[in-house]
UniProtKB/TrEMBL annotation:
Gene3D superfamilies xref list: Zinc/RING finger domain, C3HC4 (zinc finger)
UniProt-recorded name of the protein: RING-type domain-containing protein
GO molecular function: zinc ion binding
The entry's keywords: Metal-binding, Zinc, Zinc-finger
Taxonomy of the source species: Eukaryota, Metazoa, Ecdysozoa, Arthropoda, Hexapoda
Domain RING-type: 569-607
Annotated spans, Disordered: 506-544
PROSITE patterns (alphabetical): ZF_RING_2 (PS50089)
Alphabetized Pfam families for the sequence: zf-C3HC4_3
Low complexity composition-biased segments: 516-538
Length: 621
């Protein structure tokens, strides 16, 4: 057969009609195939030119040679681990334009993905085996600018290991900017099952409102010795000759001690995002995951707990009692989370440390975005190679961003409108609270509504965490039971011990009780005197619908829980003095007459079905 100036001889004819050919020239191993429809395709290039100088044949042979070289370059780059697959393809497509035209990304993606998956060795069972792979050069693909991001591993006194990963180029670029804020985060729990690890500790730095994750620590346990070894290694090997001005963490008692020891001049503080992540994580540990997934009222109680740090330090305890009273009235039984919050956050951490009232740094939106990036990279059950590849890709991206900032460029951060709107609402409600125009309970309810964006994110995070824990337990050969059994050791105590501790702490002197009583009275507006007839109508109304809320854990006082209806319409948020209506049977207040006439079917607060509207007397407003 002669095709485009080359002569072939037939070597095989298959039953489906496909014919295979080889070049008839001695020493040339070019091959071709011909379908039953007569289409000829060159599969292996020739080592010589055509005898009659056919331009079509020579061009086809040249294109095939370049396509094969393009595939070989892609295979070599993927095995070396030079960044993301799409970035590898784009960089090599510049060198082989005809090869990229004949072999597009849609075809190359499957080949490159298969090479990357099969190019890794077997997953190590211990950190020592992982360290051996890095030292023997089997994982040189995780190098940025010729330097591997693996920094080493060490073992504490009890035999638990810790592995440290930090990109040299990213650390140098970030520290060159002399950042003042350092964030230590340990709330991300999606980790590989092998080698066995209990948590991921990350260290971030803030530059021009952009957060740069520079250090990753895979820790096998969460003991005080492991935290000391990890922080000491970070200080001596990665962040030497550097001390930040502010350190933000989740105020873990086991973590803040080594942070304060190795960074003595830095001030330790908590952020709202990390507080919320810890609260949600303990809701899962205490076995309330199904409750908050199914009940909107229970999830509202959780959001009200998350909004407590927005209060001033001297009003957080009062707000906590309001949340407990609301849960008691709505018949939401979550005593373990209330006991944990009271013991850990209010008594051990303290209201001064957890309050973010009027502080310039309330939350870390960049840290929340970083968690979402890790979720997209790791999925649900990541292997150690998926984990390291995700970190490597993030480091490559952040190195480019840090280079832009070091050269005087602007950050490419995109601000979410929802986050800016939530910040505006919180600032408005805080201003009203400072002026005394907003009660503590209303402030908590309003600020909790700004956490609606957390709902779907945290629920998906709950499912991933549960699946990851179950898979890790099954892989490591340990028993996995309900979430209630996964309580931290520091909270494994009897209920009697907890209540004794709380009762001792709540014993106050008469002067302190009188001072709190005066503070609560100052927040309430003075009531106008009522006539006997109006007082009788109000008493009849209160006997019909009881909207007083008393905390089961606190004594009932008339001044602390007044029967005054205040605030704003739950639908249009108006505060005008017009006709107000109470919703029956749930008893939530209040809606204005204009909103009532819009044919409301369910309560905008609890979504219960509305059976009746009860007019609220102006004297009780």
């Amino acid at each position: 057969m002669e095709y485009m100036g080359y002569v072939y001889r037939n070597t095989e004819t298959r039953p489906n009609g496909l014919r295979l050919y080889v070049c008839d020239v001695a020493g040339c191993y070019a091959t071709a195939k011909k379908t039953v429809h007569g289409r000829v395709t060159l599969t292996r290039p020739h080592t010589h030119r055509t005898s009659n100088r056919s331009s079509a044949g020579d061009n086809t042979n040249t294109n095939l040679i370049e396509t094969i070289a393009f595939k070989a370059a892609l295979r070599a780059k993927v095995n070396a681990g030079h960044g993301r697959l799409i970035d590898i393809y784009r960089s090599e497509a510049v060198n082989y334009p005809m090869g990229a035209a004949n072999y597009p990304w849609t075809s190359a993606c499957s080949l490159m993905t298969r090479i990357r998956k099969t190019g890794f060795p077997a997953a190590p069972n211990t950190f020592a085996e992982l360290d051996n792979l890095f030292r023997t050069g089997a994982l040189n693909r995780f190098c940025v600018d010729g330097r591997n991001m693996y920094r080493g591993f060490f073992t504490n006194e009890v035999g638990k290991s810790i592995a440290i990963f930090a990109c040299h180029a990213l650390v140098d670029l970030v520290l060159r900017q002399n950042p003042t804020n350092m964030y230590v985060d340990q709330t991300f729990r999606i980790i590989p099952p092998k080698p066995r690890a209990s948590q991921l500790l990350t260290v971030h730095f803030e530059i021009d409102s952009c957060s740069f994750p520079v250090i990753y620590c895979l820790m096998e346990d969460e003991s005080p010795t492991s935290y000391y070894h990890a922080i000491r290694f970070i200080k001596e090997s990665v962040l030497f000759d550097y001390c930040p001005r502010n350190i933000f963490s989740d105020i873990n008692l086991l973590l803040i001690s080594p942070l304060g020891y190795y960074f003595p001049t830095a001030s330790l503080d908590c952020t709202w995002f990390q507080h919320n992540q810890i609260i949600y994580e303990h809701m899962i540990k205490f076995g309330y995951s199904n409750l908050i997934m199914d009940s909107g009222i229970a999830f509202r109680c959780l959001k009200m707990l998350m909004a407590l740090p927005l209060l001033p330090p001297n009003k957080i305890i009062t707000g906590f009692e309001e949340v407990k009273a609301y849960a008691y009235r709505m018949q939401v039984h979550i005593p373990k989370i209330f006991d944990y919050y009271n013991l850990h956050w209010l008594h051990q951490i303290g209201t001064n440390s957890m309050s973010i009232y009027l502080k310039p740094t309330k939350t870390i939106n960049n840290l929340e975005m970083f968690h979402k990036k890790l979720n997209r990279s790791f999925r649900t059950l990541p292997t150690i190679w998926t984990f390291l590849s995700g970190i490597y890709n993030l480091n490559s991206t952040y190195v480019t961003e840090a280079n832009r900032l070091s050269q005087g460029g602007f950050p490419t951060k995109s601000f979410r409108c929802q986050l800016m709107y939530n910040h505006f609402k919180i600032r408005t409600h805080t201003h009203r609270l400072m002026e005394g125009n907003l009660m503590i309970k209303d402030f908590i309810l309003l600020c909790s509504e700004s956490l609606n964006s957390y709902e779907e994110h945290l629920k998906c995070w709950t499912v991933k965490i549960s699946m990851n824990w179950a898979y890790n337990q099954s892989v490591n050969g340990e028993r996995f039971e309900s979430d209630v059994d996964a309580i931290e050791p520091e909270f494994e105590m009897s209920n009697d011990t907890i209540h004794e501790y709380i009762e001792q702490f709540q014993r106050q002197s008469p002067e302190e009780e009188q001072q709190q009583h005066q503070q609560q009275q100052s927040l309430q507006s003075p009531q106008s005197p009522q006539s006997p007839q109006q007082q009788q109508e109000q008493n009849e109304f209160e006997s019909t619908v009881d909207y007083k809320v008393h905390s089961p854990a606190s004594p009932e006082t008339d001044d602390d829980q007044s029967s005054e209806i205040h605030g704003f319409c739950m639908v249009c948020l108006t505060t005008k003095h017009e006709r107000k209506y109470l919703i029956v049977p749930c008893g939530h207040t209040w809606v204005c007459q204009k909103c009532r006439d819009q044919d409301l079917k369910t309560c905008p607060y609890c979504r219960d079905e509305i059976q009746l509207f009860v007019r609220v007397l102006e004297t009780s407003v």
